[in-house]
């Protein structure tokens, strides 16, 4: 009553044993594919982690640099500016990780929060009544009177160009893991599991426990079983090309590192621009929002302080070098995996499964 290992000679197998063999080949094939996938998956997961660590290091450096700017040059508003600065860098981090947000909304939200502080602490430091309504009016007015000139828009442009590739790379790496996981759990068809039993276990039914499949036979069976997985070849090659393009984009003129490191400078230029145009801004704000309460004697506008480069370049250079080296190592490895899905049958038939150094092997029907 054998269904798979039918043979003219006497046999030591039963139908129940055939069923056990089918369960065994399904389990073994899943384990074999997992073993093949492991190195590739480990490399991608490792790069995702390293990329995020280097990125977070750059982000912390840029945030500390920006906070130092307020503490050294704009002390009257440093304490209140801490929260908007923190929110800006949190938004940038979320954007990179694929959150439904934009660089533009993050930057403009920051400048919306910054304007009431610049106006009441630097341009008109005598203001005592900064009610919620007045603060909200200042926030809304920022969008119309553009107190920070072209610096806010320039910051959006620079960050958008450099962060886009980082965001895409982050999403592409996650997609790569999904693809690999889906191939591990691809179910074997009934025909495939029967073919694998015939190849690996039917010789046992004749007492031939040491004989192994012929190389060509193994390749035919594996290619048939993994046809659906091998179909990923063209898309996988395209995926590797996309990764290569994105890593090159990240290392190109609009570098992530340079853009993040320049945030403090853009904010400084924007604040200086607002201070220089203080009288015109005050006149417009008074018309739109009304005149707030002032301290007696109205303090003079805070003096404009030129800011020198904030220190901490060494940390930045280390994070920058780390990120560049990681990119190069990773893309070099991924390029070597271009043929991963095209050669999966060959790799499964390599090693212990087939007979390589013997004159006899199993062809599915007999020993040849």
UniProtKB/TrEMBL annotation:
The subcellular localization recorded is: Cell membrane
Topology with regard to the membrane?
Lipid-anchor; GPI-anchor
The Swiss-Prot or TrEMBL record describes its family as follows: Belongs to the glypican family.
* A Pfam family it matches: Glypican
- Keyword check for Membrane: yes
Its main localization is: membrane
The Gene Ontology biological process terms listed for this entry are:
cell migration; positive regulation of canonical Wnt signaling pathway; regulation of protein localization to membrane
Q: Which is a Gene Ontology cellular component entry for this protein?
A: plasma membrane
Q: Which UniProt keywords apply?
A: Cell membrane, Glycoprotein, GPI-anchor, Heparan sulfate, Lipoprotein, Membrane, Proteoglycan, Signal
Q: What is this protein called?
A: GPC5 protein
Function as written in the Swiss-Prot or TrEMBL entry: Cell surface proteoglycan.
Nucleotide-binding among keywords: no
């Amino acid at each position: 009553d054998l269904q798979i290992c039918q043979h003219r000679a006497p046999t030591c197998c039963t139908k129940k044993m055939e069923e056990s063999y089918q369960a065994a080949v399904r389990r073994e094939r899943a384990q074999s594919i997992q073993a093949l996938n492991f190195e590739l998956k480990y490399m991608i997961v490792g790069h995702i982690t390293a990329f995020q660590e280097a990125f977070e290091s750059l982000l912390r450096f840029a945030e500390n640099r920006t906070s130092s700017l307020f503490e050294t040059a704009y002390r009257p508003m440093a304490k209140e500016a801490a929260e908007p600065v923190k929110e800006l860098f949190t938004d940038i981090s979320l954007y990179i990780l694929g959150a439904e947000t934009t660089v533009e909304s993050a930057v403009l939200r920051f400048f919306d929060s910054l304007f009431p502080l610049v106006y009441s602490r630097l341009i008109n430091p005598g203001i005592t009544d900064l009610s919620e309504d007045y603060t909200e009016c200042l926030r809304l007015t920022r969008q119309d009177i553009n107190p920070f000139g072209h610096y806010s828009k320039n910051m959006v442009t620079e960050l958008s160009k450099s962060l886009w590739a980082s965001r895409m790379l982050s999403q592409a790496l996650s997609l790569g893991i999904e693809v690999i996981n889906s191939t591990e759990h691809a179910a074997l068809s009934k025909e495939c599991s029967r073919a694998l039993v015939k190849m690996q276990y039917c010789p046992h039914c004749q007492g031939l426990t040491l004989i192994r499949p012929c190389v060509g036979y193994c390749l035919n069976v594996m290619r048939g079983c993994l046809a659906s997985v091998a179909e990923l070849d063209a898309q996988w090659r395209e995926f590797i090309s996309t990764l290569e393009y994105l890593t090159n984009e990240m290392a190109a003129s609009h570098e992530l590192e340079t853009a993040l490191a320049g945030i403090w400078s853009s904010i400084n230029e924007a604040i200086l621009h607002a201070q220089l145009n203080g009288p015109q801004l005050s006149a417009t704000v008074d018309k739109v929002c009304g005149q707030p309460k002032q301290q007696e004697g109205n303090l003079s506008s805070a003096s404009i302080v030129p800011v020198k480069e904030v220190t901490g370049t060494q940390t930045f250079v280390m994070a920058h070098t780390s990120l560049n080296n990681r990119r190069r190592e990773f893309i070099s490895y991924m390029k070597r995996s271009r043929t991963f899905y095209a050669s999966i049958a060959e790799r499964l038939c390599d090693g212990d499964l087939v007979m390589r150094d013997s004159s006899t092997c199993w062809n599915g029907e007999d020993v040849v």
